[in-house]
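Annex B. Sample input.
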Amino acid sequence: MGRKTVVVVEGEDASPEAMRPSVGLLQKLGAEIEWLTPPVGERGIEERGSAFPDEAREAIDASDATFFGSTSGPSAAALMYLRWGRRTYANLRPARFLPGYRSPLARPEGIDFAIVRENLEDLYLGVEGPIEDLEPIRPRSRTARRPVTDLGPGAYALKLITEAGSERIARFSFELARARKARGGPGRVTCATKHNMLPESDGLFRKVTHRVALDYPDIELQSFIVDDFAHRMILAPHELDVVVTPNLYGDILSDAAAALVGGLGLAASGCYGEDYAYFESAHGTAPDIAGRNVINPTATLLSAAMMLEYLGLVSLAEALVAGIERIYREGRILTPDQGGQATTQAFCDELLRQIEQG
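Annex B, continued. Sample output.
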């Protein structure tokens, strides 16, 4: 298989405090990975006069994957390239409860589903502007029954859903459901859209998903209006397997799903394209705890496990997850967000001990 190359972008605020010990842990475990740290963000500005210099882009292009910390500043330039430049169209965000997680639910045991968020389209294309810019075409509102330019001063955002993008993410979701079924899962895809109010855009996403489902007769398909789905996700999360949504809904719902199992500090994420992937925790940079060495590294470490699996280092990925499971089951070394008093480094040191002891 050969040695893999991974670019590391630490991110801002408290993010490096989770990334550094996580990478250090993988190095101590002997991961067959060459770790590259090109200048990105503040370091890129200081050393190269750019938050994302050419050498950083070239390093990403030559690597097998990127391990990305959370960003709230100049590192976002690299994130934009990783997503749109490398066309990583599928954002996979698992929501799996482990005994010991501090879930607000009375009975969280058995929650194990994954949200697949289309990662490139929808409102996240960032096509916005003042309403008056639409005056030359005067688009007519289907609900207000008049040109939107008659509504007065304001702003618009353009939502774009393509047939190709919808089919691509639907197939990713059905393939994931099939793989999960082979490991004992129910084999079910749930599509969540606002097709009742947006019959052209969300309606297209839903229609394409139903069409793709015909190629997967072994996988059940459910389809719900997204607000109905949000209710069902809270009421009966145990019934979910793979959830597929357009970009915006997936971003919001995956944060809510993280809360079900115990919080964003536990929320892993991977973004996959046809020939590249990057991995990052789903939480933010936590500026309120920066410098205190108490950020929960679980989301970062579970993202690392997803990365290891993607790179073909499956046994190491399984060992990493098994060690995390033991830490939470024992409940001795936990960070403050999970009711403990451990530092980030202490958690990683304990994880190393757990893995080495097997």
